[in-house]
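ok so for the tutorial part 2 we go from a plain amino acid sequence to predicted structure tokens. step 1 is just haveing the sequence, like this:
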Amino acid sequence: MKVAAAQTFVSADVAENGRTIRESIRQAAERQVRLVLFCEGALSGYSKVQVAAPSDWLRYDWVQLDRELAEIAATCKTCGIHAVVGSAHPVSERKHPTNSLVVISDQGLITGRYDKRFLSNSEVNDWYMPGTDPLVVTIDGFRFGCAICIEAAFPELFAEYERLGADAVLFASYGITQQFKTALQAHAYSNCYWIIASPPAQKAHKYPAFICGPEGDPITQAVQKNDDAFAVADLDREDPAYEVALARARPWRAKAREGGIYRDKRKRSSDY
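step 2 — the prediction. this is what the tokens look like for a chain of 272 residues:
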């Protein structure tokens, strides 16, 4: 399965963001990509940057955002491609929205939404409502978990996705720091799955969009400049390069975490 991490420019103009995302979807489809990920806030804009003050949410044009999301969904259907798009999402009767990833199918249907669960101090106090649940979606036989930005610092979230049977985690952020990159590589290695990571173009100078293999090494990255770009890779469970990580290490680590093999060993040792 071919996947892509998109690296697009995010502006304060939702309509312009929508046009950029749709064009990127078309370009990804031309490369036979089946799933393309966009960064945190790719459609709506992100807090403290495109949305300058918490009170701006009260004046936000959610109708325009819904129109753009519908156009993106139509483009996915036309191109026969799945997309996961970072965007704020309004919460009924709440002052603040959630910071979310919207999953759109190749049939143009919204099939899931992940709401960021672990927020930064400023986010939870001033900008966003926290989510509560993990999200795993199945596309072309692969299971994808979702994570956003500061959640890279919470290994329990990535371990949860391993227990839920994820083959990969879609990680969207408004910028990827060196610390995030290091943590994501460690999560990929510890849990033996792929990680697809997407920042905005204007933050690519820190670290560009990249895809990490289940042994913990980045296997591809976008051109490192402030420009729209992609990181594209094939997810292949039969690739000999991943035989140890997927066929040996992951099953063994699941047994080790469950602990039965060690309890049995201790019991046999106590018989002597």
